[in-house]
Write a structure and sequence with these properties.
Radius of gyration: 26 Å
Structural class: alpha/beta
Strand order of the largest sheet: 2-1-3-5-6-4
Shape: elongated
Oligomer: single chain
Bound molecules: NADP nicotinamide-adenine-dinucleotide phosphate
Helix content: 40-55%
Largest sheet: 6 strands, mixed
C-alpha cells in the first residue's frame, strides 16, 4: 500500500490536531482540502484534511485510518463502490445508489454515506432549480449518474430520460431506481435514439466524463437542435468551467451551470456529518469563492525565490504532495535540456548564457501554469526582466534565511555554481556578500516574505498553504 505525502512517515508528527482526509487514485488535483481546511479554519477547529494516494489494499488503508483516529474520510475515483466492503454500516441512500463518498467514524469502524446526491440537490435548490414535477434528461450512466437518478426520483422528478453510449448501463440504473421507488419514471435510451424524447423544456444533467479534458470535442449529443430542449443545463464537470455541453446549452438560450457547486455542497455535507455541526451560509459562500479562485484563477501558482539552501525545492515538493500542486524546478528543467549540471553550464557557457536560458524558460511558462509551484534558481530574480515575469507567473514567496543559517545549509559541498571550490571563511564571506546584494532584490519582487531561519521546511510549506488559502478566502 502506498499512502501519498508524508503520511507513511507519520503525518501526525507534522501537525497537531485532528485529521480528515480523502482516498483516491489519482488524487493530486483534488480541491477538497480547500473546502475542509477553509471551514475548519473559519470555525476555529484544529483539523487538517490530507489527500492520501491509495494504489492498492483499500481495506488495509481504511483500517489504518481508523486505528490512527482519522475522524472522517472522503472516497473518490476509483473506490466509491469498492470501499463499501470495508465499512461497519452504510446509509440507506448510499446503499441504494451503490456508491459511498464519505466515511464517518463510529464505534468499531466507519459508516458510509453518499453526499454527492445531497450536494447536487442542495446546489440545484440554491440555483433556484426545482426538481419536483420536472422533466429531466441525463447524459451518461456511470457511478455519478446513479446518484443523480436517485436524486431525481427522491426529489419528485416527473420523468427522467437516461441517454448513454452503452444502453445496458442506462438500463441497469433505470431498472434499479424504478424498482426502489416503485415507479416507471426513468426511461433508458441509447445515444442513437435521443430523438424519441418528446419536445418540451427539460433540466439536462451531463453526467459523462466527456468534456473533462481539453480537446474532448463534442458532447455525447452534438446535434444543436437537441439543446432547444434545455431550459437548464447542469454539467457535473467543473473544470473547465465551460464544457462543450454547457456552451451548447447557452448558445441555445438555456441556463448553464457547472459542477463546482455540487462539489462544494457534497463537501459541506460531509463536514457536517463528521463534526456534527451546521456550516453557516456565509461560510458556505466563502468556501465557494475559495474554490472558484483555486479552480479558475492562474494566480494560484506559487513562485519560490530565495538564496541557495533556503529550501525552495523541498518546500515545493511538500506543497505538491500535501496540497495537490504541480511542481517544477527551473534549474532541473534547464539541466535536463542542456544535458549538464548548472555548475557545468556556468563553467562552459557562462553566467550570462544561463540567465538568458532562464528568461526564455519564464516566457515559456507564463500563462501556461495552473495550480503549480515553481522553485527557481537563486539568481533568477537578479535580472530585472525575470522579476517582472516571476510576478506574472504567480504569487512570489521569498524564503529568507540568516547568513549563518545559509552557511550551515550549504557548507559541505553543494554543487552550487557560484560557490564552487569555496569553504570555511571564504564561503561564509561570499554568502554574506551575495546575500547583501540579493536581499533587497528578493524583497522587492516578493508578495510574501517567510523567514525560514528558525523553522524547517514542513513549517514553511504549511505557512505558504495557509497564506494561499487566506488569499482565496479574501476574494469577493
Ligand atoms: P464513470 O462511472 O466512469 O462514468 C463515465 C460515464 O461517461 C459513462 O456514462 C460513460 O459511458 C461515459 N463516457 C465516458 N467516455 C465517453 C465517451 N468517450 N463517449 C461517450 N460517453 C463516454 O464516471 P463518474 O464517476 O460517473 O463521473 C462522471 C463525471 O462526473 C466525471 O467527469 C466526474 O468528474 C464528474 N463528477 C463530478 C462531481 C462533482 O462534485 N462535481 C461528483 C462526481 C462526479 P459508458 O457507460 O458507455 O461507458
Amino acid at each position: 500500500m502506498e499512502i501519498m505525502n508524508f503520511a507513511v512517515d507519520g503525518y501526525k508528527d507534522i501537525d497537531a490536531g485532528e485529521y480528515l482526509g480523502i482516498f483516491g487514485n489519482p488524487i493530486k488535483h483534488t480541491m477538497s482540502p480547500v473546502i475542509h481546511d477553509t471551514i475548519s479554519r473559519q470555525l476555529g477547529k484544529d483539523m487538517r484534511y490530507i489527500p492520501f494516494h491509495i494504489t492498492e489494499n483499500l481495506g488495509e488503508a481504511v483500517d489504518m485510518a481508523y486505528r490512527d483516529g482519522i475522524v472522517g474520510l472522503n472516497i473518490t475515483v476509483p473506490y466509491k463502490q469498492q470501499v463499501m466492503e470495508h465499512l461497519v454500516d452504510i446509509d440507506e441512500a448510499a446503499r441504494v445508489i451503490g456508491a459511498v463518498n464519505t466515511l464517518v467514524r463510529c464505534e468499531d469502524g466507519y459508516k458510509g454515506y453518499n453526499t454527492d446526491m445531497y450536494g447536487l440537490a442542495k446546489f440545484l435548490v440554491s440555483e433556484g432549480v426545482k426538481l419536483d414535477g420536472a422533466r429531466v434528461i441525463m447524459l451518461g450512466a456511470g457511478g455519478a449518474a446513479r446518484a443523480v437518478a436517485y436524486m431525481c426520483l427522491k426529489y419528485g422528478a416527473d420523468r427522467v430520460y437516461i441517454v448513454n453510449r452503452t444502453f445496458e448501463n442506462a438500463k441497469k440504473i433505470a431498472d434499479d431506481m424504478n424498482k426502489v421507488f416503485d415507479c416507471d419514471k426513468i426511461i433508458p435510451l441509447c445515444v442513437e435514439d435521443y430523438y424519441v424524447i418528446p419536445n418540451g423544456r427539460y433540466i439536462m444533467i451531463q453526467c459523462t466524463s466527456v468534456g473533462l479534458h481539453e480537446g474532448d470535442g463534442l458532447p455525447l449529443i452534438s446535434d444543436e437542435a437537441f439543446y432547444d430542449k434545455a431550459e437548464i443545463g447542469v454539467d457535473l464537470i467543473y473544470n473547465p468551467a465551460k464544457t462543450p455541453f454547457l456552451k451548447l446549452v447557452e448558445e441555445n438560450g438555456g441556463k448553464a451551470i457547472n459542477g463546482l457547486g455540487m462539489l462544494l455542497h457534497q463537501g459541506v455535507k460531509a463536514y457536517e456529518l463528521w463534526n456534527g455541526v451546521e456550516v453557516p451560509d456565509w461560510l458556505v459562500k466563502r468556501v465557494y469563492r475559495a474554490l472558484c479562485r483555486v479552480a479558475y484563477d492562474n494566480t494560484d501558482n506559487i513562485v519560490l525565490i530565495g538564496y541557495m539552501g533556503s529550501g525552495k525545492s523541498t518546500v515545493g515538493r511538500l506543497l505538491s504532495l500535501g496540497y495537490g500542486y504541480d511542481f517544477i524546478d527551473t534549474d532541473e528543467i534547464i539541466e535536463k535540456r542542456e544535458g549538464m549540471s548548472t555548475t557545468d553550464i556556468f563553467a562552459k557557457k557562462g553566467e550570462a548564457y544561463f540567465r538568458q536560458v532562464e528568461t526564455e524558460l519564464l516566457y515559456e511558462l507564463k500563462g501556461k501554469l495552473k495550480n503549480t509551484v515553481v522553485a527557481t534558481g537563486g539568481g533568477m530574480p537578479v535580472k530585472e526582466e525575470n522579476r517582472q515575469l516571476l510576478k506574472e507567473i504567480g504569487r512570489v514567496f521569498y524564503l529568507k534565511a540568516s547568513y549563518d543559517t545559509t552557511y550551515q545549509r550549504v557548507a559541505g559541498g553543494t554543487g552550487r555554481p557560484l560557490l564552487a571550490n569555496l569553504e570555511g571563511n571564504s564561503l561564509y564571506n561570499k554568502i554574506k556578500e551575495m546575500t547583501a546584494v540579493r536581499t533587497p532584490i528578493y524583497t522587492e519582487v516578493a508578495d510574501e516574505v517567510i523567514d525560514t531561519t528558525e523553522i524547517d521546511e514542513y513549517e514553511v510549506h504549511k505557512l505558504i498553504a495557509a497564506t494561499m488559502s487566506s488569499y482565496a478566502e479574501d476574494v469577493e
